[in-house]
Write a structure and sequence with these properties.
The complex is a heterodimer of chains A (263) and B (291). Chain A is mostly helical. Helices cover 85% and strands 0% of the residues of chain A. In chain A, helix 1 runs antiparallel to helix 10. Chain B is globular, with a radius of gyration of 20 Å. The chains are: A mainly alpha (263), B mainly alpha (291).
């Protein structure tokens, strides 16, 4: 399990899980799960488009993710769920069009959606780490305003925090993070880690900083368990990540209810 | 008309069946989607399509009817979302996300098992994006019958549901079983999304559920007119998309047709953008008139 060919998977997986846990803390706090689902899924269409035009897939991924993130962020004020849904379906439909025009090989599509974490190449380690650090830095800078804004939106606006700018900044971070992790671990995997473990962490503690740390820890543990289980059983990693993430939340839910009853 | 519609469009059986089933699904999705938009449940509406896909893939593994898999998967997903909790909007967001994450995990497993047991490729893409042009006659009749049932149920549930959606507190005070009506609607939405996801794919299913109703609600007429407008916009997008997809075969020298899903989604988005711009222009004019 810890053979040399698995080393890349462990390193990249841990970095991505830490980032997903940190981003997910804010996603759950702000109720932006839909955007967190839409942006990476839409970004995959960008990769297909880039293949068609003949530029590097990364350019397409970043372009689509950033445009989607900014579009969703701009519509935050009114009916953001409708705007998110429309942005998502438009990007996915464009992805379908790009694929049929370029006749890409189907396993490549599947790899983008479900990820190939066990096939991570050594060359993708450095970019993933660098981008994760950039995103982590951005989140650390926005930590106080974001928590303040979520806890008391009116008060934070009165203090001069512009909610639209904050939302845009957060969406941009989300977009950059997902554009770089999607080709490595898949759109579906990073979404599961972004919602399940952070939601569980928020149930376990009400203090923001503790919840953030717990979220990152749960996310990493979930991913480690998934890689190990996948290695042992030969079943896809995405399956374990998806199901274990949901399971972590359910266990946290049941245990908090049980604690409340016995207290 | 030759420049607009390529010859042979209506003599093509696949196109006719596809357009028919697309129109039926567009009408049901628009009617059901009106409440999805009013209740701000777009995320759940979209997630259920992905959950239905997991059900369909599961049916593929077990070797049972995919239609049953799609509908059962979607309804189970809706039940799980309700069980996790839907009282507050933010909690609803997390509940939907957790169910969606778990379901995509299951889909990854089922699709892997399918590719392990068969040599056919293309199933993943078909399940995700669907194609109107691959609908069989038998499926068409089943979908039409099920859609009629959904419409009947919606007519029966409509009045209390509208009350609950517009002002839950007042409805509760008047003795309407708010929680039960909401649960009933979520199940109805799950059945609709399951039906539409199998014929048109999860992407198009969300587009038709959210786009036309959101545009129709912007028109700001009476309720019955808004419902009719949503259905009309949905059918128009499907019809236009079918024609455009069929025509696009001759647009490029390479003869690669645009997928019908793309054409329909593009038209849905276009409708929404046009209605939004018109709405903004007319509001600005109203404002100036009053000032």
């Amino acid at each position: 399990m810890f053979a040399s060919f698995m080393t890349n998977a462990w390193i990249v997986g841990t970095v991505v899980a830490l980032l997903a846990g940190a981003t997910g803390f804010f996603v759950v706090m702000r109720g932006s799960s839909f955007a967190a689902h839409a942006i990476p899924n839409g970004a995959f269409a960008g990769a297909a488009g880039a293949t068609l035009v003949g530029v590097a897939p990364l350019v397409g991924l970043v372009t689509f993710a950033v445009v989607a993130g900014l579009g969703i962020g701009a519509s935050r004020r009114h009916r953001s769920d409708v705007a998110t849904a429309m942005a998502l379906v438009m990007m996915l439909a464009m992805g379908a069009a790009f694929l049929s025009l370029s006749a890409a090989y189907e396993p490549q599509v599947e790899a983008l959606l479900f990820g190939e974490i066990l096939g991570v190449s050594p060359s993708s380690i450095t970019p993933v780490i660098v981008i994760s650090l950039v995103c982590a830095l951005a989140l650390a800078t926005m930590y106080r305003p974001l928590v303040f804004n979520a806890a008391a939106p009116d008060l934070s606006a009165a203090r001069g925090l512009n909610p639209t700018v904050l939302e845009m900044g957060f969406m941009l971070t989300l977009a950059l993070g997902s554009a770089l992790t999607v080709p490595v671990v898949g759109a579906l995997l990073s979404f599961s880690l972004t919602v399940g473990p952070p939601a569980a962490a928020r149930l376990l503690t009400s203090r923001p900083l503790r919840a953030l740390v717990a979220s990152m820890a749960l996310s990493v543990v979930t991913l480690w368990a998934s890689i190990a289980a996948s290695f042992q059983t030969d079943l896809p990693v995405g399956f374990f990540v998806g199901v274990l993430s949901a399971l972590v939340y359910i266990v946290a839910r049941v245990s908090t209810r049980w604690r409340r009853h016995s207290a | 008309m030759h420049w607009l519609i390529e010859p042979g469009l209506w003599s093509n059986d696949a196109v006719r069946t596809g357009a028919g089933v697309g129109a039926v699904v567009a009408v049901v999705s628009a009617l059901v989607g009106m409440f999805t938009v009013m209740r701000a449940q777009s995320f759940a509406g979209h997630a259920l399509a992905d959950v239905a896909t997991a059900g369909g893939a599961g049916a593929g593994v077990l070797g049972v009817s995919p239609l049953a898999g799609f509908v059962v998967g979607s309804v189970l997903g809706a039940g799980a979302m309700e069980a996790i909790g839907v009282e507050r909007v933010r909690q609803r967001d997390v509940a939907t996300g957790v169910v969606l994450g778990g379901a995509t995990g299951l889909s990854a497993l089922f699709l892997y098992l399918i590719t392990l047991n068969s040599s056919s490729t293309g199933s993943t893409q078909l399940i995700l994006f669907g194609s109107l042009f691959s609908v069989s006659h038998a499926t068409f009749y089943v979908i039409t019958a099920a859609s009629a049932l959904v419409c009947l149920a919606l007519a029966w549930l409509g009045r209390p549901l509208l009350f609950v959606s517009l002002s839950p507190d007042a409805a509760g005070a008047r003795g309407v079983a708010v929680r039960r009506v909401a649960l009933g609607y979520t199940v109805l939405m799950a059945v609709t999304v399951g039906l539409s996801a199998i014929v048109i794919g999860s992407v198009l299913s969300t587009a038709l559920l959210i786009g036309p109703p959101a545009a129709a609600l912007r028109l700001g007429r009476s309720m019955s007119v808004t419902f009719a407008a949503a259905a009309a916009l949905g059918v128009a997008a499907v019809a236009g998309g079918v024609v455009a997809s069929y025509d696009s075969y001759s647009w490029w020298p390479s003869h690669r047709a645009l997928p019908v899903s793309f054409c329909v989604v593009a038209l849905v988005v276009l409708e929404l953008v046009v209605v939004n711009v018109a709405h903004r222009v007319s509001r600005r004019r109203d404002g100036r008139g009053r000032a």
